[in-house]
Structure formats: C-alpha cells, structure tokens
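Narrative of accomplishments. A recurring question from our advisory board has been how the design workflow behaves on a single, concrete structure rather than in aggregate. To address it, we present the structure tokens for one chain from the evaluation set, followed by the sequence designed for it. No filtering or post-editing was applied between the two.
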C-alpha cells in the first residue's frame, strides 16, 4: 500500500517538474513580455553558461527551472557589475543589463 501511495505522489509531481524548465525569453517591450507575445529570442539556459541579452530586447523573462543563483551583468559575456535575481522567474526590463547566467 505504501508503495502505491508513493508511486501516485511521484506521478502527480512529474508534470510540475517538467513544466518548470529553465527559460530565458527576450521581448521588444515589457508589455510583450507580460503577455508572452512577439518573442524575439528564446533560450533554455544551461547552468554556468553566459547568455548575452540582445540590443533589441527591452524586457526579458527568466525561469531558473530549479537552478540557483541567477545573475544579470551590466557587461556582455557576463562581465561588469553583477546583480542577483530571484529564483522565481518574472518579466524584467532590460535596463542596464547585457547578459545573464544561472548556476
């Protein structure tokens, strides 16, 4: 009986784990980001890899997918001033940031 309950709970959790994939989407405006429309670029970030944010991007959305320590950088190639992000993804104006990395 305990095995059946454990299998049921594990099966119930699988969709939520799969839905929480890492994501870095870039948009031309904050409104587009909030409405998830007119996406400019999409990446499924890999831990430790740096992603440059395009100059056409006005806002971006990130989801860590369980990775910790998301960071944005003022310089490209993850150089310059580094600022932490929440592990809970959301839309954010690009502002001064030019690159992103999560580990």
């Amino acid at each position: 009986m305990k095995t059946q309950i454990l299998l049921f709970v594990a099966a119930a959790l699988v969709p939520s784990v799969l839905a929480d994939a890492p994501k870095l989407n870039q948009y031309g405006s904050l409104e587009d980001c909030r409405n998830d429309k007119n996406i400019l670029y999409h990446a499924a970030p890999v831990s430790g890899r740096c992603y440059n944010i395009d100059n056409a991007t006005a806002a971006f959305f990130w989801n860590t997918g369980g990775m910790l320590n998301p960071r944005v950088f003022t310089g490209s190639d993850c150089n310059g001033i580094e600022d932490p992000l929440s592990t809970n993804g959301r839309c954010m104006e690009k502002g001064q940031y030019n690159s992103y990395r999560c580990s």
